[in-house]
Amino acid sequence: MAGDAIDVAVIGAGPAGLAAALGARQSGAKRVVLIDREEEPGGILKQCIHNGFGLQYFGRDLTGPEYAMHFWQQIGQTDIEYWPQSMVTALSPAGGLTLFHPRQGRRELTPRALVLTTGCRERTRGNLAIPGTRPAGILTAGTAQRLVNINGYLPGRRVLVLGSGDIGLIMARRLTLEGATVLRVVEILPYAAGLSRNVVQCLHDFDIPLQLRSTATQLIGSPRLEAVVITELDTGRSETIACDLLLLAVGLIPENELARAAGTAIDPLTGGPVVDDRFATSVPGLFAGGNSLHVSDLADWVSLEGFAAGQQAARYAVGESPAPPTVAVRPGDGVRYVVPQHVRTSGESERLTLSFRVQQPIKNVTVQLWDGDRALASARHRVCVPGEMVKWEVERRLFAGREQVRVTATGEPFC
């Protein structure tokens, strides 16, 4: 088997990669290789010990490790090859990849199809350029999550959370349960960036304050963080808050280095590759799904995209030649971005799903698909907020004869 050609190689074994490998194998790929730089599969799921996973994909409420285990058990019933501790360092436009393993050394592969499920990374202090010293006690929320949930280490006692991303909200609750005092969550926007359910369950239920339209303007302390200066944007008033831990939950960025190395077109709005409704990038044989494509709210959606990308990669590997995409999909009024960016007028299904985020919180929302000044389809939503992705299933036939369409979302602003 080791000498056989690889039909589909999946890079990354998080929630998207696990599903992609299964999707590829179940769709006819004979040899599927799941490449992972970590020692064990699951990606970020391994440190997410809270529940809320699996309702969409498995119909069950699971923790992160349980969610990963469900996939791993399914993979264990197949002949999918798992290559842990294998770091992919290069990807060529011709489809070749280079990886390194600590014991096996350097390897070069040319699979028939590739799926990028490399996930995303957190924005750091370097992205924010907060003035002050460089003390210990400044961590991304994901790093703190790993320290607490996997290593059993409490990194601080008096905690300030900057940014209201979902991991930050979840860690505000987690640190409170571990005995730390979470002083407040500070958000630069006039609304919370995370899911509404996390705001309620992690902040309101634990009486943790949320301070909006504010940000950190100075860090104080050396060699350990002693205080953070928080400034209100509307009034200019500043307050010095004594703390020994600053958690950064200020957004996620798709890991797109390999996609760029392969020469794929990158959407500046999502930070991930431009894809069509098959999750195919601009490079033939290269597919992408999950958080490496665009940052999702739910691991279930990540897995659903990964599974579909794996299916399409398998079809490409066995020689299927689907119709090329002909219609460009663009964000219109009130919409920040749309995925996929291109769609086909014919495909395996009569309907396709558009994923998008609105630019600001709005209620009594009308979502519309437009060709010029002609509305092709519409849908209603009670509320849409930037922190919660909108999934809209539309009929494929609506795209026939179009060159470009746009998605709009209009409603009454609120904060």
Please outline what is shown here:
The protein has 415 residues and is α/β, with parallel strands linked by helices. Helix content is 20%, strand content 32%. The protein has helices at 15-26, 64-76, 125-128, 141-149, 166-177, 196-203, 257-261, 299-317; strands spanning 8-11, 32-35, 81-83, 87-91, 97-101, 105-109, 113-116, 120-122, 138-140, 158-162, 181-186, 210-211, 214-220, 227-232, 238-242, 245-248, 252-254, 286-288, 327-331, 335-339, 342-343, 351-358, 362-371, 374-384, 390-395, 404-413.
SSE blueprint:
Elements: E1 8-11, H1 15-26, E2 32-35, H2 64-76, E3 81-83, E4 87-91, E5 97-101, E6 105-109, E7 113-116, E8 120-122, H3 125-128, E9 138-140, H4 141-149, E10 158-162, H5 166-177, E11 181-186, H6 196-203, E12 210-211, E13 214-220, E14 227-232, E15 238-242, E16 245-248, E17 252-254, H7 257-261, E18 286-288, H8 299-317, E19 327-331, E20 335-339, E21 342-343, E22 351-358, E23 362-371, E24 374-384, E25 390-395, E26 404-413
Helix pairs in contact: 1-2, 1-8, 4-5, 5-6
Descriptive report:
It is a single chain. With 415 residues, the chain is α/β, with parallel strands linked by helices. 20% of the residues lie in helices and 32% in strands. The protein is built from eight helices and 26 strands. Strands 3-2-1-7-18 form a five-stranded parallel β-sheet, covered by helices on one side. The protein is globular, with a radius of gyration of 22 Å.
| Count of extended strands | 26
Strand order of the largest sheet: 3-2-1-7-18
Shape: globular
CATH architecture of the largest domain: 3-Layer(bba) Sandwich
Number of domains: 3
Low-confidence residue ranges: none
Main beta-sheet annotation: 5 strands, parallel
Helix content: 10-25%
| CATH-assigned homologous superfamily of the largest domain | FAD/NAD(P)-binding domain
Q: Radius of gyration, Cα only, in angstroms?
A: 22 Å
Secondary structure category:
alpha/beta
- Give the rounded overall mean pLDDT: 95
The CATH class of the largest domain, by name, is: Alpha Beta
Residues in β-strands, percent: 25-35%
Q: What's the end-to-end separation, in Å?
A: 58 Å
